[in-house]
Amino acid sequence: MSKIVFPAETLELVKKIIARYPDGKQKSALLPILHLAQAEWKWCSPEVMDYVASLLSISSIEVYEVASFYTMFHLEPVGEHVIEYCRTGPCCLMGGVEVYDHLKKRLKINTGETTKDGKFTIKEVECLAACGWGPVFQIREKYYMHLTKEKVDEIIDELSK
Amino acid sequence: MKILTEHIDVPNIDTIDVFMKHGGYSAVQKAIKKMTPDEVTEEVKKSGLRGRGGAGFPVGMKWSFLAKPEGVPRYLVCNADESEPGTFKDHYLMWKSPHTLIEGMIVSSFALGANTSYIYVRGELMYVINILEKAIQEAYDKGLLGKNILGSGYDLDLFVQPGGGAYICGEETALLESLEGKRGNPRNKPPFPAVKGLWQCPTVVNNVESIAATSWIVNNGGDAYAAIGVGRSTGTKLISASGHIKKPGVYEIPLGITVEDFIYSDEWCGGIRDGHKLKAVVAGGSSVPILPAELILTTAAGEKRLMTYESLSDGGFATGTMLGSGGFVVMDETACIVHNTLTFAKFYHHESCGQCSPCREGTGWMDKVLHRIEHGQGRKEDIDLLVDVAKKIEGNTICPLGDAASWPVAAAIRHFRDEFEWHIEHPELATKPGAVFMRKGASWTK
Ligand SMILES: Cc1cc2nc3c(=O)[nH]c(=O)nc-3n(C[C@H](O)[C@H](O)[C@H](O)COP(=O)(O)O)c2cc1C
Ligand code: SF4
Ligand code: FES
User: Fold this and answer.
1) Domain B337-430 indexed as CATH 1.20.1440.230
2) C-alpha of residue B187 to centroid of ligand 2, in Å
3) Please, which residues have CB within 8 angstroms of residue B340's CB and are 6 or more apart in sequence?
4) Residues with beta carbon inside 6 Å of ligand 1?
5) What does the alpha-carbon distance between residue B90 and residue B8 come to, in Å, rounded to a whole number?
6) What architecture does CATH give domain B234-332?
7) Any alpha helices (H) in B66-125, and if so which ranges?
8) What are phi and psi of B94, to 5 degrees?
9) Contact assignment for A132 to B240 by CB distance below 8 Å
10) Considering only CA atoms, which of A7, A134, A143 is closest in space to residue B131?
């Protein structure tokens, strides 16, 4: 992997984020910057987390303990598209179980796995605050709602292109 | 009567010009130019507005507890972590009409004397964070945020903070830890955030909907707000309706309509989906006790149940529930109570921060035991074991997540014990895909 450094415009943004908090409280910028780091490098490797620590002048362990607490941060490599489906009650009432089973069959992987070609990873997550529009999954920032088996196929076809 | 969502379907209401054309930011004008911070607080007190995040604590009273030592900054933090299963109203409001929240943030920050405020949004809603940040920039450009707002000498900076995917960060002290860049472990109370909150400074944490309602209160007066609703349940409430209804979605209701009306009227949920019957409702998010059809529609005393804090909790936990966050999950006869309870138990197991052993271990036990019941390996003694574990968690933890985990399990067994027994006694039937126990003679059994 090439050297881990944010592009210049992201570094500008990092500076702006740190300025949201009082002097000396730059550690508050940790979650926003971890999100930027994950957007840049797809997952939070130890090297990425060390880099984030250096940007905030905090120790690496302070980053590790936070990244491992919050479920959005991937601590292992993931595929190009990470599909995070909601497995909580209200989505299940709307047929979520069948839809997600279909997704797993279609991609021939289980929850927590990545397809051989590295294109897709499936993760199971808790309620995404979209219960009335379920079943739901999320790929990066985008919510896919009112899912059916057919819709899942369309989304996968589109992303496989 | 719509207070928060009156203009929510107006095209481009998420842009400041359209929002202002519909009366937006008039509360900022009025509060900052014509009122003192104490006068704003007084109106909010008069309104009877209660916290919409779940606990229902009076907002004005919370504000009046805020410590105001000289020379120490005070903070307002908006709780937009919304992660309670069944709840999606804050998501809806911020996505459709971000300025409604921002206006409320300015008014509320002014009342509290905060010069920096944060909106903590669950990280999964990154697209909503982008919407809010764009809207905040528009407000800065119009001089509604920043230095010397509307020439009044009052300064306010407003920032959005993303979470990282942790339900526990909705608990206000865990939220503050998270905002300080730490793991979301709830703090011991006291001290309360009103005295020692963000960076040990006095802080008020309020829900999105609570804060958004303050603009209308400033514009129309606390008395006008209090005139809506019934008794101590004043004003309107956003209800997130999901499950087996004809029209799932977010509805703003005047507190005090009947539950029956809410479920069956075309104005709201539109009734149970065709050909099916109401079986059970979780009325206030996953944490509150589930009730069977009869008890959600009428209280044990035979009165029509209302959508109010008081009526929903009538009868205590024996026959009642709670309004909670307003996450209204409706189930028809096809819903398996054991399966639904299992998903909630898994949720709390996953979301326990692990600090207190009754919660950390107990949520794991409940998940495990429910899992085996659902998968045909239940034992006769498992039902009492679940009740016992739930009892041992309740009241023995640092934060209310422990209670929130134990209540749904205890209530499901209280009202649907026969369904758990059937799973244990007839695993060969219960594990068939889609199999659901039909109680003889129940109103939902066909
Ligand atoms: C486990 C747990 C999760 C919570 N999640 C939320 C939440 O997502 N949003 C929220 O507003 N309040 C949540 N609360 C309640 C907050 O602790 C706090 O009471 C609330 O934000 C105060 O605002 P309000 O008085 O305006 O309701 C949660 C509480 C607990 C114990
Ligand atoms: S009750 Fe559970 S979530 Fe709350 S502090 Fe204790 S372990 Fe953490
Ligand atoms: S249960 Fe799936 S989004 Fe809430």
Assistant:
1) yes
2) 10
3) A89, A92, A93, B290, B331, B412
4) B 51-55, 57, 59, 79, 81-84, 167-168, 170-172, 205-207, 210, 399-401, 404
5) 13
6) Roll (3.10)
7) 89-96, 98-112
8) -70, -35
9) yes
10) A143
Ligand 1 center–CA B206 separation, angstroms: 8
Question: Are A93 and B340 inside 8 Å of each other by CB?
Answer: yes
Q: What is the pLDDT confidence band of residue A2, given thresholds at 50, 70 and 90?
A: low
- Tens of pLDDT, residue by residue over B21-42, are 999 999 999 999 999 999 999 9
Residue B373 belongs to what H/E stretch? helix B357-374
Q: Residue for token digits 């990545």? A: A114
Residue among B166, B92, B86, B160 at smallest CA distance from B126: B160
CA of B388 to the centre of ligand 1 (A): 27
CATH level 3 topology of B16-227: Rossmann fold (3.40.50)
Longest dimension (CA), chain B: 74
* Domain layout of chain B by residue ranges: 16-227, 234-332, 337-430
CATH of domain A81-160: 3.40.30.10
Contacts of A92 in chain B (CB under 8 A): 339-340, 343
CA A73 to ligand 3 center in whole angstroms? 20
Establish whether this prediction's ipTM goes over 0.95.
Answer: yes
Confidence of residue A161 (pLDDT cuts 50, 70, 90): confident
Q: Could you tell me which of B343, B424, B422, B337 has the C-alpha nearest to residue B378?
A: B424
Could you identify the atom of ligand 1 that is nearest to the CA of residue B83?
A: 8
- Ligand 3 site, residue A127, Cβ cutoff 6 A: yes
Query: Which CATH architecture describes the domain A8-67?
Result: Orthogonal Bundle (1.10)
> CB distance B248–A133 less than 8 Å?
yes
Instruction: Note whether B197 and B76 are within 8 A (CB).
Output: no
Tokens 């905002």 label which residue? B179
What pLDDT, in 10s, does the model give residues B104-124? Answer: 999 999 999 999 999 999 999
Query: Which pLDDT score is estimated for B64?
Result: 97
Instruction: Let me know: does B409 contact B388? Beta carbons within 8 Å.
Output: no
Cβ atoms of residues B101 and B120 within 8 Å:
no
87-146 in chain A: CB under 8 A from chain B: 87-90, 92-94, 125-134, 138, 140-143
Task: Estimate the crossing angle of helix B98-112 against helix B208-220, to 10 degrees.
Answer: 70
Q: Which residues of A touch B122 (CB under 8 A)?
A: 129
Ligand in closest contact with the CA of B82: 1
Cα–Cα distance measured from residue B296 to residue B282, given in angstroms and rounded to the nearest whole number: 9
Outline which parts of chain A fall under CATH 1.10.10.1590: 8-67
- Helix, strand, or coil here: A5? coil
Which residues in chain A touch residue B178, judged by CB atoms under 8 angstroms apart? 31
Every domain of chain A with CATH number 3.40.30.10 lies at 81-160
Strand, coil or helix: what is B304?
Answer: strand
Contacts of B334 (CB under 8 A, 6+ apart): B244, B276, B434, B436
Task: Tell me how far the alpha carbon of residue A74 is from its chain's centroid.
Answer: 7
Whole-angstrom Cα distance, residue A9 to residue A134? Answer: 37
Collapsed DSSP state (helix, strand, coil) of residue B159: strand
Tell me the pairing of strands B249-254 and B278-282: unpaired
Q: What share of chain B is helix, strand, coil (3-state, %, to 5)?
A: 45, 15, 40
